């Protein structure tokens, strides 16, 4: 850490408070993001695209879900710059308020029958605002947690951001369970709006929690030493472009999440004809398992390294995607639950537990938020369109799942290559993270 010019002691980190705030904030924010995906899979084709055939309407509805990922890289550029120049805390507040406002407004939108073509246009515009917010959310929360954490527990504390994301998905799916059980007429007229309106409460709680956050010791040290760069993006692309590219490719592991949460749900309900309620419960239970398993995987990562855990999770997903989609095609609820919970709730979480620390540790503090945000959001943007690509390329037959499984497995293997070629960082001291010179000292790892 750079010595303070005034000779004062460096600020002391508060890892538990930072991790809790990141967990709660991510849970609240990603509740907003995931209720959109659920609504897109179940009802938006009928509300905003009723003039299209069922298959085309589903394709268009899922496309609006993917559109949110288009603005994510733009949000990463803008919010990453703000976070590296003015601090992590400001970005956390901006993302929460922007996501909440756009989500509440989605719930207020009239359907196609009232506004005509203006309805889906406004829907896409609000979805773009959601994506803009999400572009800076996780990177700022991860940077906040990592820079407050002890050096030998960085993965553990940063993993709570992803645990919060899973909790947000649990909340979103759980809210939709009683809504999806409404009679069709009530569901399409007013029922689907309730989860979006509830976001107003979510935003209020999240704002007060995040407002009490303290800025990270690392950023305070940069300010005190006068080391905050004026143009973080220029420094990032000049000195760390290779790491940004590696994060982009590694972030394609998010394809497993979008296939599981959006494509598989749509395929099961709209193509195979399975009931909505049990399929929603698969997501709830898988995410309950994920909330427990993520910090456990992170502890293993702090002890044994980032890369081993990450690659094991990627390879496991490449294998398990076949029996999961196959179980859906066969209509076997037992195997849907067993394999779905195992894949998404246990195996996939090995990657979720590691990437918040692994990506952040590739960059020095002065460009950490920008590097993490831009790299992940470009990768996530690609992953966000995979449900749409899956529907468009493979059609709607009962055998459509095979091509989707092969495609998803191939992306997992590409992810393994990207992670394998990166540097192991779990023993690198926080002050030396992202530096290009050889590391001479390592932090001790408790045995």
From TrEMBL:
<feature type="transmembrane region" description="Helical">
    <location>
        <begin position="244"/>
        <end position="266"/>
    </location>
</feature>
<dbReference type="GO" id="GO:0015293">
    <property type="term" value="F:symporter activity"/>
</dbReference>
<feature type="transmembrane region" description="Helical">
    <location>
        <begin position="91"/>
        <end position="112"/>
    </location>
</feature>
<dbReference type="InterPro" id="IPR020846">
    <property type="entry name" value="MFS_dom"/>
</dbReference>
<feature type="transmembrane region" description="Helical">
    <location>
        <begin position="278"/>
        <end position="297"/>
    </location>
</feature>
<feature type="transmembrane region" description="Helical">
    <location>
        <begin position="367"/>
        <end position="393"/>
    </location>
</feature>
<feature type="transmembrane region" description="Helical">
    <location>
        <begin position="399"/>
        <end position="420"/>
    </location>
</feature>
<feature type="transmembrane region" description="Helical">
    <location>
        <begin position="333"/>
        <end position="355"/>
    </location>
</feature>
<keyword id="KW-0813">Transport</keyword>
<feature type="transmembrane region" description="Helical">
    <location>
        <begin position="190"/>
        <end position="209"/>
    </location>
</feature>
<dbReference type="InterPro" id="IPR036259">
    <property type="entry name" value="MFS_trans_sf"/>
</dbReference>
<dbReference type="InterPro" id="IPR005828">
    <property type="entry name" value="MFS_sugar_transport-like"/>
</dbReference>
<dbReference type="InterPro" id="IPR011701">
    <property type="entry name" value="MFS"/>
</dbReference>
<comment type="function">
    <text>May be a proton symporter involved in the uptake of osmolytes such as proline and glycine betaine.</text>
</comment>
<dbReference type="GO" id="GO:0005886">
    <property type="term" value="C:plasma membrane"/>
</dbReference>
<keyword id="KW-1133">Transmembrane helix</keyword>
<dbReference type="Pfam" id="PF07690">
    <property type="entry name" value="MFS_1"/>
</dbReference>
<keyword id="KW-0812">Transmembrane</keyword>
<feature type="transmembrane region" description="Helical">
    <location>
        <begin position="309"/>
        <end position="327"/>
    </location>
</feature>
<dbReference type="Pfam" id="PF00083">
    <property type="entry name" value="Sugar_tr"/>
</dbReference>
<protein>
    <recommendedName>
        <fullName>Putative proline/betaine transporter</fullName>
    </recommendedName>
</protein>
<comment type="similarity">
    <text>Belongs to the major facilitator superfamily. Metabolite:H+ Symporter (MHS) family (TC 2.A.1.6) family.</text>
</comment>
<keyword id="KW-0472">Membrane</keyword>
<feature type="transmembrane region" description="Helical">
    <location>
        <begin position="57"/>
        <end position="79"/>
    </location>
</feature>
<keyword id="KW-0769">Symport</keyword>
<feature type="domain" description="Major facilitator superfamily (MFS) profile">
    <location>
        <begin position="18"/>
        <end position="427"/>
    </location>
</feature>
<keyword id="KW-1003">Cell membrane</keyword>
């Amino acid at each position: 850490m750079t010595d303070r010019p005034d000779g004062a002691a460096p600020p002391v980190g508060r890892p538990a408070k930072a991790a809790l705030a990141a967990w709660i904030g991510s849970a609240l924010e990603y509740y907003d993001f995931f209720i959109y995906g659920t609504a897109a899979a179940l009802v938006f084709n009928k509300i905003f695209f009723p003039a299209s055939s069922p298959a085309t309407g589903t394709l268009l509805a899922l496309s609006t879900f993917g559109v949110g990922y288009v603005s994510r890289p733009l949000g990463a550029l803008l919010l990453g710059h703000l976070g590296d120049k003015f601090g992590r805390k400001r970005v956390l507040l901006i993302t929460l308020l922007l996501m909440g406002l756009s989500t509440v407004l989605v719930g207020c939108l009239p359907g196609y029958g009232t506004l005509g073509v203006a309805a889906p246009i406004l829907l896409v515009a609000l979805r773009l605002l959601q994506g803009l917010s999400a572009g800076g959310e996780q990177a700022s929360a991860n940077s906040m947690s990592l820079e407050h954490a002890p050096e030998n527990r960085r993965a553990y504390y940063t993993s709570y951001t992803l645990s919060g994301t899973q909790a947000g998905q649990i909340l979103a799916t759980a809210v939709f369970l009683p809504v999806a059980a409404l009679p069709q007429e009530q569901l399409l007229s007013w029922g689907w709006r309730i989860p979006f309106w509830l976001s107003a409460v979510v935003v209020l709680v999240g704002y007060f929690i995040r407002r009490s956050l303290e800025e990270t010791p690392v950023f305070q040290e940069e300010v005190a030493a006068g080391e905050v760069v004026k143009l973080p993006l220029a420094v990032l692309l000049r000195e760390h472009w290779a790491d940004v590219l590696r994060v982009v490719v590694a972030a394609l592991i998010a394809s497993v999440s979008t296939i599981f949460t959006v494509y598989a749900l749509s395929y099961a309900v709209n193509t195979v004809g399975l009931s909505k309620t049990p399929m929603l419960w698969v997501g709830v239970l898988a995410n309950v398992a994920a909330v427990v398993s993520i910090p456990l995987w992170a502890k293993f990562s702090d002890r044994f390294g980032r890369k081993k855990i990450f690659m094991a999770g990627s390879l496991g997903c490449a294998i398990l995607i076949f029996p999961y989609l196959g179980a859906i095609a066969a209509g076997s609820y037992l195997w849907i639950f067993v394999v779905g919970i195992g894949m998404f709730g246990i195996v996939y979480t090995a990657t979720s537990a590691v990437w918040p620390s692994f990506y952040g540790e590739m960059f020095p503090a002065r460009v950490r938020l920008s590097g993490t945000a831009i790299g992940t959001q470009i990768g996530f943007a690609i992953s966000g369109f995979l449900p749409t690509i899956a529907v468009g390329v493979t059609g709607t037959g009962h055998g459509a799942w095979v091509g989707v499984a092969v495609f998803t497995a191939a992306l997992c293997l590409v992810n393994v290559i990207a992670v394998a070629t990166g540097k192991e960082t779990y023993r690198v001291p926080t002050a030396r993270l992202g530096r290009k010179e050889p590391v001479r000292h390592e932090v001790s790892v408790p045995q």
